[in-house]
Specification:
Elements lengths: L1 E6 L4 H11 L7 E7 L5 H8 L4 E3 L7 H14 L4 E4 L8 H6 L4 E5 L11 H8 L3 E8 L9 E8 L6 H25 L2 E4 L2 E4 L2
Parallel strand pairs: 1-2, 1-4, 2-3, 4-5
Antiparallel strand pairs: 5-6, 6-7, 8-9
Helix pairs in contact: 1-6, 5-6
The structure holds 5-O-phosphono-beta-D-ribofuranosylamine.
5-O-phosphono-beta-D-ribofuranosylamine binds next to α1, β5 and α6.
Length: about 200
């Protein structure tokens, strides 16, 4: 399967996926292209260092649908089968979502449906939760809402602050994304309403 990875910044989740592939843990997977809406995203430079196709597609004041159409065209050009949003800080237009039905994944640093949106780890910490975590889910037209592929939990410790909690969640994110991709490309799972379950 050919992956298209989208991010806006650091790209540590992208790198974790790239590392899994390099370690032979995601057999049959390759990264076809990485795309960032920020030309100066550190993740883009890291992608180029690894010899991957890395493209900046900035919005440049264009309407969301127009910007997204350029991204969709780029993904098609690279014959992408599965799209992974990895810290991509823009909402996808309905046109983008509909162009790749059930073929777009996102990772979110909370146990959805709790704490959607920005700064999820801070939201969770400030709320006083005792268990936090991350979610890999299919993308639909609502923010942080689609069917869950998998979740991982972490404890909140007494001496945590939002930073130490975020770091603990991030470690799990790096494991969760590759596991979720493996699940999706295995062909062993199917949708059962809002559940994504192992086929009988
Ligand atoms: C991660 O916390 C991810 O869950 C969220 O954005 C952050 C991206 O981090 N969607 P990185 O760029 O992968 O390091």
């Amino acid at each position: 399967k050919r992956l298209g990875i989208l991010f806006s910044g650091r790209g540590s989740n992208f790198l974790a996926i790239a590392d899994s592939i390099a370690a032979g843990k995601l057999l049959g997977c390759e990264i076809a292209v990485v795309i960032s809406n920020k030309a100066d995203a550190p993740g883009l430079a890291a992608a180029r260092d690894r010899g991957l196709a890395a493209v900046a597609i900035e919005a440049q004041g264009r309407k969301r649908a127009e910007h997204d159409a350029t991204i969709v065209a780029c993904l098609r050009e690279h014959h992408v089968d599965l799209i992974c949003l990895a810290g991509y800080m823009r909402l996808l237009s309905p046109e983008f979502v509909q162009a790749f039905p059930q073929r777009i994944l996102n990772i979110h640093p909370s146990l959805l449906p709790a704490f959607p949106g920005l700064d999820a780890q801070h939201q969770a910490f400030d709320y006083g939760v005792q268990v936090a975590g991350c979610t890999v889910h299919f993308v639909d037209e609502q923010l942080d809402h689609g069917v869950i592929v998998l979740q991982k939990t972490v404890p909140v410790l007494e001496d945590d602050d939002a930073q130490t909690l975020s770091a603990r969640i991030l470690e799990q994110e790096h494991l969760a994304y590759s596991e979720a991709i493996a699940r999706v490309i295995s062909g062993d799972y199917e949708f059962a309403g809002r559940r994504y379950v192992r086929k009988p």
